[in-house]
């Protein structure tokens, strides 16, 4: 079942990555004609890191022998939330003259709101993996998810540019630290 379901999840995550990478590529093309915003670019990198990490971590589900309809929809919804989060970073199409700082702050409540939903879903997904003995909850996970939720909450509340510059970099450092200190590298070897 997972192999069949994994294709759907891969497509949705691929669409999220495509949207972000296309947005960054378009920014590069129009670099002299737009007003880029470095905080948004770091969030684009964060989105790529998170999407790839979640995509990789979904492989733990290969060990689940029987899938319920509810869990199918939950994991599908999680993938859709990742896509919507990524989608908030860039307009579908943009022409010269875009001010990405204004665009980011005009959409920040939605961006951080979806991010909050993502992390709440991640908690349920991680705990379920553990309860079904697919993967134990990593020791750092409670600290990492708490940090991510705090960043999401602060991002929704304030439009202070200095605060947002700290939030995006802090998020990236937490995500990279967690990725390299957790059990991600064992995912592929567990099922081979």
How much helicity do the residues have?
A: over 70%
Structural class: mainly alpha
Q: Which value, in Å, is the CA radius of gyration? A: 17 Å
Sheet with the most strands, sense and barrel status: none
Number of domains: 1
Mean pLDDT: 92
User: How far apart are the first and last residues' alpha carbons, in Å?
Assistant: 17 Å
Q: What can you tell me about this protein's structure?
A:
The chain has one domain (2-190). The chain contains seven helices and no strands. It has 192 residues and is mostly helical. The chain has helices at 2-29, 38-57, 69-87, 100-131, 141-157, 161-181, 187-190. Helix 4 (100-131) packs antiparallel against helix 5 and helix 5 (141-157) runs antiparallel to helix 6.
Fold topology:
Blueprint lengths: L1 H28 L8 H20 L11 H19 L12 H32 L9 H17 L3 H21 L5 H4 L2
Key attributes of the depicted protein:
192 residues; mainly alpha; disordered C terminus
In a nutshell, what does this entry contain?
73% of the residues lie in helices and 0% in strands. The protein contains seven helices and no strands. It has helices at residues 2-29, 38-57, 69-87, 100-131, 141-157, 161-181, 187-190.
């Amino acid at each position: 079942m997972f192999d069949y379901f994994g294709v759907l999840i891969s497509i949705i995550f691929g669409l999220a990555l495509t949207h972000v990478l296309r947005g960054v590529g378009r920014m590069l093309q129009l670099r002299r004609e737009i007003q880029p915003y470095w905080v948004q670019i770091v969030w684009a990198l964060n989105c790529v890191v998170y999407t790839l990490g979640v995509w990789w971590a979904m492989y733990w589900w290969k060990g689940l022998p029987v899938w319920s309809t509810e869990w199918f929809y939950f994991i599908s919804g999680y993938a859709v939330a990742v896509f919507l989060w990524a989608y908030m970073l860039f307009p579908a199409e943009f022409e010269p003259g875009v001010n990405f700082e204004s665009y980011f702050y005009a959409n920040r409540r939605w961006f951080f709101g979806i991010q909050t939903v993502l992390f709440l879903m991640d908690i349920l997904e991680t705990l379920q993996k553990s309860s079904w003995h697919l993967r134990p909850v990593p020791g750092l996970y409670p600290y990492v998810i708490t940090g991510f939720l705090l960043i999401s909450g602060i991002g929704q509340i304030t439009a202070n540019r200095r605060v947002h510059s700290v939030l995006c970099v802090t998020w990236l450092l937490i995500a990279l630290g967690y990725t390299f200190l957790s059990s991600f590298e064992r995912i592929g070897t567990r099922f081979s």
